[in-house]
Design brief:
The protein is α/β, with parallel strands linked by helices. It has 11 helices and 6 strands. The longest helix is centred in the last third of the chain and has 15 residues.
């Protein structure tokens, strides 16, 4: 049986590279591609893939919100996150949204292929880097305040940290600027900060801002 895969990443060159990598392996086929959350959602509806491989950082709404949206459409959807973000907080938010696997782009190529097969088989798939990050948090009994956020709140926080305006965030989520302002206030309240400067410092300590600031956002 051939595993039919949807690949969602905002960089065409990256998609082409991973298409070639994945299709070198027997039994896996890329049946559709998309470049952002909106096109990814439409591609999922049209192609009904066996596994959706989704990046987190994309223009507009990110991959975590796309996972949430896909799982609302199809509660049995099998989604694998494939991203540069090696933070336990990102992974936990992805799983909370409904992802079944999480692999970083710094992992060896065969790890991605193996993860696709694992997720297709209904088993969770984590790369070694994320396994270690989650294990460290567990051993140290670290509970991040960021983990209190819902997947939607986390995605809006990600866009705030990426210096997106309220109007840009509102357009990405089809919300009013007033609703975005309410989310912004609620996020700061949950995280126990009073200003955007405190918000940025907190996220820097949690390793979120440094990742977001890297060139390309892949």
């Amino acid at each position: 049986m051939v595993i039919r895969v949807l690949l969602v990443d905002d960089h065409a060159v990256v998609r082409e590279g991973y298409r070639r990598l994945i299709e070198k392996h027997q039994g896996i086929e890329i049946i559709a591609e998309a470049y952002d959350a909106a096109s990814g959602y439409e591609a999922f509806k049209k192609s009904s893939p066996d596994v959706a491989v989704i990046d987190i950082s994309m223009p507009g709404r990110g991959g975590i919100d796309l996972v949430r949206q896909i799982r609302q459409l199809d509660s049995a959807a099998r989604v694998l996150i494939f991203t540069m973000h090696a933070s336990a907080s990102y992974a936990q938010q992805a799983f909370r949204a409904g992802a079944r696997g999480y692999v970083t782009k710094s992992s060896p190529p065969d790890v991605l292929v193996s993860a696709i097969r694992e997720v297709f088989a209904g088993r969770p798939a984590l790369c070694a880097e994320i396994n270690q990050a989650i294990a460290k948090n567990t051993l140290c009994e670290e509970v991040s305040v960021v983990d209190q956020l819902s997947p939607r709140e986390f995605e809006i926080l990600r866009m705030i940290l990426d210096a997106k305006s309220a109007d840009e965030i509102a357009a990405a989520f089809n919300l009013s600027p007033k609703t975005v302002a309410n989310y912004h206030y609620q996020i700061k309240s949950k995280l126990g900060v009073r200003s955007d400067i405190e918000l940025v410092y907190l996220c820097m300590r949690r390793g979120l801002v440094a990742s977001l600031a890297e060139p390309g956002g892949v």
